[in-house]
């Protein structure tokens, strides 16, 4: 029995040492949280914000810095935008781009169209890029996100920012289930479908939980209205409670619907 | 005897239950999904899950539960699949040498594994239950793709049980002449079935890391072989197969150590000492090629996806490899320590004592280099937490060639320990002893110099991005030195004299603790590597195909993982001790006075 207890004690001690070392012997790094699958509110986007979004994606969801860092795994991209004219006439270039924007997008989604010398997959003599297609796989940036990164690279590379903030196309994000919903045609339809009338007096609705919106255009400007929808808690209307209005309308509406709604509300005087 | 029968019945009924459950689950899910997605020929895309799709059981953390149950299943499975491999070899050795001790030892090994076998089945059933309970959508998706292989898995499980029971219970019946051959063939069959089982389960696992046979949306092409034969299947098969043998050896070694410590007579002690020695021998033999298989696996992961490769070797997990190095160092040191203690069995060993301290110094030095942190590549947030990508002082020792050099030296010196041990009790009689020794010394010296040169040259004077060019010639050097000197040794000691009788059982009890250390470290290491294997998928159930949107999708910190692994290890060890105890009581008979009618 004594032997038995000694063996048990020895086992516990060993396990305890390993666990102790792992907990206290090495630094505890909090791994980055999984990237959020959130909608971008393109309707409320300025070019500066768009570039900042691109930077955020570049460092975060895009995981670009995993490889594009100063450890020599992939080229630094600071000057890439400026190099594009040279790339386009390089005999090794196999793509179809004709300008900086197209080249950058192509290098994100078809990385092997041009492989920077010395960075190709081992044994392929720089014909195959180890970089993944960032519109697919685990990175899976959507069109808007890709454009934002392009804007960021153009801006940080000192080139002219030529990308347009996309507002026309319905956002396809991973979260949409099944078929994307058809956009609402009129502000009234949007108000009915989104249930604003449950709380507000607006259009033909008579809700009473929230402020009356029938004269709201006279009180608030467009920027305020946009914010009131995207981030209701940013400024609480006097006499009302926080956390009443759903905070996720930004995610439920397409960019052009938001603009339509803001225009409509601003017109109610 | 009574107890034995009961155990047997329980085993069979569990097997049945698990098998049926598996079949039902596979079929029912298959049918349901097929009818739901009828249009595309039965295969829909991988579902996009919401947090609410993951059933929550109050007070239960789904991920930790699955994690522990799967790990327990894996440990038992690794053990019961590995034991028949070396039981087969030992039985064959016994047949050839006609030394009955081998046959008895083989039988005892398989006896230990047979109780563990029912526990494997129970844990497997529990794992299936937990998967269906906590991750129904993932399991449903997987069982559409692997419908057939799951069916065959269940079938093979029956076959494995049947063969195992015949092999075990028929051991004494199938003795001598032709019958022994039949028995050995059964052993071969048992291994064939067991290995196939492992290959199938590995396919499911590796599919989640490197999915194949599906399009980017997860629509299955219907080609089951493509899904099974995915990119990482074979690298993991190889690493696991070898690791399992080493692991099985270490657990059996712990069994022998336990029996040794609790043995009463000198004869029993001698028997278990011998058994422990053999188990340790098996573990070391499998341990030596493991680092190579490991680096091959890592290289293949890198080749499959640069992103996954960097996640593996850089960032958060770079620190994991430092813990891994500590554990592997522990494995090597305890295996060597055991050999050194074992020299006490021989009266001729004194001649070699003086060398041991040098081996110990080299081993510890190599170990320290190995566990020097690699250059760390981190995500921005992790970088901030740590304050920079390079280790402050030890940068140059952290790179791959330095580690390769260290690993190769560690392996070489373990081989050297082993050669000393083998020689301990022998006196060579051939005329060329001096020359032979000189050749061996020369071999080792040039080998070590070459390994050093390759490591230093490639590590510090070439400018490749991944300085791994040295690894292949280094490995070749190591292998050549080991093989050549073992061959020379075996000729040199062909008709050697014994320095004196070997005193089996004449080892200090602390040597037995080296065997426990080996087993515990191995178990813990396996658990840790299970964490990294799953961890590098990050927030994906199936990499790039099916996202993990459960509340537990985040990658846990190393400390958290280490705590889960430790808890699981303790659970496993408790169960193993239970198994040992069971195999002890099943062999003892109590004769109650006056209970039975005369
Ligand atoms: C002496 C050296 C080594 C030992 C003793 C060892 C041991 C083990 C063990 C016991 C397992 C668990 C196997 C299983 O799940 O059945 C494992 C898995 C693993 N090892 Fe190693 N290993 C060694 C070297 C390496 C190296 C050098 C690497 C990579 C750099 C590596 C990478 C891995 C990975 C990624 C896994 C998880 C794969 C799986 O689940 O099977 N190993 N190792």
Question: Nutshell version of this structure?
Answer:
With 269 residues, chain A is an all-alpha fold.
Task: Summarize the structure in words.
- By secondary structure, chain A is an all-alpha fold.
- Chain A is built from 11 helices and no strands.
- Chain A is flat.
- Chain B is globular, with a radius of gyration of 26 Å.
- A two-stranded antiparallel ribbon of chain B has the order 1-2.
- With 598 residues, chain B is mainly alpha-helical.
- Residues 1-41, 375-398 and 463-469 of chain B have low confidence and may be disordered.
- Chain B is built from 19 helices and 4 strands.
- The chains are: A mainly alpha (269), B mainly alpha (598).
- At the A-B interface, helix 1 and helix 3 of A face helix 8, helix 11, helix 12, helix 14 and helix 18 of B.
- The structure holds protoporphyrin IX containing FE (HEM).
Largest sheet of chain A: none
**Order of helix and strand elements from N to C terminus of chain B:** HHHHHHHHHHHHHHHEHHEHEEH
Strand fraction of chain B equals under 5%
- What class, by secondary structure content of chain B? mainly alpha
- What profile does the largest beta sheet of chain B have? 2 strands, antiparallel
Short descriptors:
heterodimer, A: 269 residues, mainly alpha, Cytochrome Bc1 Complex, Chain D, domain 2, 2 domains, 11 helices, 42% helix, B: 598 residues, two-stranded antiparallel sheet, disordered N terminus, binds protoporphyrin IX containing FE
